[in-house]
């Protein structure tokens, strides 16, 4: 009799745990893609890449669900702006909606690279007076495509093209009103409320991050989101590659227990090899004109939290219980389309 | 047996019966029709990727998967693309063990030898590209910059048939110092004889710039340089495989956007008649737009 009662109690506990986990789980996918930037500026491949990701994740039988698909003029810049930071924004209705696990944007990035024409041999010479009469410490940055130049951190953004844009079509995710992933489970520590949702944001854009500023570029955008994945050019430009989205989705379809961050990196290895300019010294292509990398960044309140997020599988990505509780610690992981033999800052920046 | 019991039994049996496996190419050399340039089908018996001690085979999410405790070896039965992926937990444990990766040069040789021994045709390997995997960690607001660390390489074979590159074909792997395969991907389809002949004709055309311009009348004025390549359906595709010989051009679209938009190069493919070729991966699906609030 006692055994029957114990079995019954265990059964109830398991059912309650499953219900609780289901309540903590997001499975939605939203894709916003912009190809049409006006006459003479068509980003061929952008909508196909976004659609390829959405279709690959939500084919019949998948337990991911398609939340929304917007393209071209139906992609408003306000879709990405946090309402608590700027009340013109409505990311809680769109890109960062509760219940969304993965938010995918594909379109133009911006050119501004922060690099001067001042040659350097060490970063210690790259100091200038900034806009607020504060010292601006730069980096003596180089790439296989160019000599070392003094470069400074600049905000990064992606671009929309809609008659309904309220921010000039420029979504500044560095110092602008962009916050991803704030939820009841992350808490409102980012000052963005708790009405967000995304656990993975993908920005399939040119110059999503420029070396070595991966943490500075993204820290404000981390408000609970587990991972942000994007493209980093190290000399050259990104090619809009129609296959990128479907190839990333295929990483989930082939291995749902695989690592999400590594899946984004491995995506590059599958892309066409020598379309696009080569990277001097060997390599290149694979979605870049020149030298570039797929990069993923994780942030949380603790070093362990950041490590756990970088280690998430696709199944774990859905768990809103893992939403970030802060952005004090980070991990970054990236795969570059060329050979590096030195991983220290000298690979990107002369110290 | 009561009717309810019969129904429950039927439901149980049908829900437990395995999904039938789709047809796939057998691992090894692929030739569809006589005269094709052979491809290579990677398979679980030729791969050194270890999914686990006990492996279960099933068909799910469009992939035939061999699933084990370490990871999964999966094949897309439509494209033939094969991939080996460690579980997230196994990848973390492997990297936490801290074994230094082989040098880039050694890694490239190891991967090339691995795929040659598996069955990739030696005369189709144009070279090996090294992709570098790095990681960094630290405090976001620290004044000290953390040091990136190279945690491994992915080496990827480049395919060429005669003098013609085949950029959509892939064979890549990440291998550790002991030769353990930590991840891999192979998509190396057979190429029809007709496509090879078209590529030869295109090469002859490309070698004669005056004749090229009379045929390629649709080439944009900005496209000053091009190359002949064989393109085929990509690895993630679920549609019937095709391969075409094309003349590929790339150019930057003219004009500047006042918002400082980073314009991306345009890439166009043309066949030997000068007609624009739209690859299957470039066709925009007609999908509905979600209504906005």
Description:
The complex is a heterodimer of chains A (351) and B (293). With 351 residues, chain A is of the alpha/beta class. Helix content of chain A is 21%, strand content 26%. Chain A has helices at 2-23, 46-58, 214-218, 244-254, 260-270, 303-310, 314-317, and strands spanning 28-33, 65-71, 100-106, 108-109, 115-119, 127-129, 135-137, 139-143, 146-151, 157-159, 170-172, 200-204, 227-238, 288-300, 329-336, 349-350. In chain A, the strands form 4 sheets. A 7-stranded mixed sheet of chain A has the order 2-1-3-12-13-14-15. Chain A has a 4-stranded antiparallel sheet with strand order 5-9-8-16, with no helix packed on it. In chain A, strands 4-10-11 form a 3-stranded antiparallel sheet, with no helix packed on it. In chain A, α2 (46-58) packs parallel to α4 and α4 crosses α5. The termini of chain A are far apart. Chain B is α+β, with helices and mostly antiparallel strands and 293 residues long. Chain B is 20% helix and 31% strand. Chain B is built from 5 helices and 15 strands. In chain B, 40% of the residues are buried. The mean pLDDT of chain B is 89. The interface between A and B is large, with 107 and 82 residues.
Terminal CA distance of chain B reads 55 Å
Q: Compute the number of strand runs of chain B.
A: 15
Based on secondary structure, the structural category of chain B is alpha+beta
Estimate the strand proportion of chain A.
Answer: 25-35%
Largest interchain contact: A-B, 107 and 82 residues
User: What's the total number of strands of chain A?
Assistant: 16
Q: Identify low-pLDDT runs of chain A.
A: none
Assign an overall shape of chain A. Answer: globular
Helicity of chain B, in percent? 10-25%
| Strand order across the largest sheet of chain A | 2-1-3-12-13-14-15
Helix content of chain A: 10-25%
The profile of the biggest β sheet of chain A is: 7 strands, mixed
């Amino acid at each position: 009799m006692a055994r029957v009662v114990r079995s019954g109690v265990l059964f109830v506990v398991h059912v309650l745990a499953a219900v609780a986990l289901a309540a903590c789980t997001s499975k939605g996918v939203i894709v916003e893609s912009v190809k049409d930037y006006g006459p003479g500026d068509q980003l061929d491949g952008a909508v196909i890449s976004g659609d390829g990701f959405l279709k690959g994740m939500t084919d019949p039988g998948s337990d991911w669900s398609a939340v929304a698909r917007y393209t071209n003029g139906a992609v408003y810049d306000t879709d990405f702006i946090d309402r608590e930071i700027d009340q013109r924004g409505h990311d809680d209705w769109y890109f960062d909606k509760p219940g969304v696990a993965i938010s995918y944007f594909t379109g133009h990035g911006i050119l501004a690279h922060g690099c001067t024409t001042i040659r350097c041999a060490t970063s210690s010479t790259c100091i200038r007076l900034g806009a607020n009469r504060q010292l601006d410490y730069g980096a003596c940055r180089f790439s296989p495509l160019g000599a070392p130049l003094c470069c400074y951190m600049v905000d990064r953004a992606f671009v929309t093209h809609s008659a309904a844009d309220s921010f000039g079509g420029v979504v500044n995710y560095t110092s602008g009103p962009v916050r991803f992933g704030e939820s009841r489970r992350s808490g409102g520590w980012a000052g963005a409320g708790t009405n967000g949702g995304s656990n993975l944001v993908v920005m399939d854009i040119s110059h999503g991050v420029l070396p070595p500023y991966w943490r500075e570029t993204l820290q404000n955008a981390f408000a609970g989101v587990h991972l942000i994945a994007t493209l980093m050019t190290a000399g050259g430009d990104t090619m809009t590659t129609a296959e990128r989205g479907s190839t990333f989705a295929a990483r989930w379809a082939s291995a749902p227990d695989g690592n999400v961050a590594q899946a984004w990196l491995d995506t590059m290895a599958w892309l066409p090899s020598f379309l696009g300019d080569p990277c001097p010294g060997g390599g290149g292509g694979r979605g870049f004109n020149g030298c570039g990398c797929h990069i993923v960044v994780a942030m949380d309140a603790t070093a362990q939290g950041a490590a756990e997020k970088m280690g998430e599988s696709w199944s774990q990505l859905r768990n809103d219980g893992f939403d970030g509780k802060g952005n004090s610690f980070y991990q970054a992981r990236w795969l570059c389309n060329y050979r590096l033999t030195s991983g220290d800052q000298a690979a990107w920046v002369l110290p | 047996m009561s009717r309810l019991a019969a129904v429950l039994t039927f439901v149980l049996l049908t829900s437990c019966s395995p999904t039938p496996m789709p047809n796939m190419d057998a691992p090894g050399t692929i030739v569809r029709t006589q005269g094709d340039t052979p491809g290579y089908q990677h398979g679980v018996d030729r791969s050194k990727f270890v999914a686990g001690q006990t492996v279960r085979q099933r068909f799910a999410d469009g992939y035939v998967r061999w699933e084990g405790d370490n990871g999964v070896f999966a094949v897309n039965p439509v494209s033939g693309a094969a991939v080996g992926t460690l579980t997230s937990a196994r990848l973390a444990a492997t990297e936490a063990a801290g074994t230094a990766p082989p040098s880039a040069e050694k890694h490239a040789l190891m991967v090339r030898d691995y795929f040659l021994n598996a069955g990739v045709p030696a005369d189709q390997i144009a070279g090996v590209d090294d992709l570098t995997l790095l990681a960094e960690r630290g405090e976001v607001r620290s004044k000290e910059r953390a040091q990136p660390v190279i945690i491994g390489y992915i080496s990827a074979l480049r395919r060429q048939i005669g003098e013609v590159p085949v950029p959509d074909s892939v064979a890549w792997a990440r291998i550790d110092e002991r030769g353990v395969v930590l991840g891999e991907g192979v998509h190396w389809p057979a190429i029809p004889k007709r496509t090879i002949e078209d590529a030869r004709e295109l090469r002859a055309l490309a070698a004669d710039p005056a004749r090229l311009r009379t045929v390629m009348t649709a080439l944009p004025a900005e496209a000053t340089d091009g190359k002949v390549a064989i393109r085929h359906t990509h690895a993630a595709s679920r549609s019937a495989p095709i391969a075409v010989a094309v003349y590929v051009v790339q150019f930057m679209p003219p004009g500047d956007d006042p918002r400082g938009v980073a314009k991306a190069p345009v890439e166009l493919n043309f066949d030997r008649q000068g007609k624009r070729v739209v690859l299957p991966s470039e066709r925009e699906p007609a999908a509905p737009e979600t209504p906005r609030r």
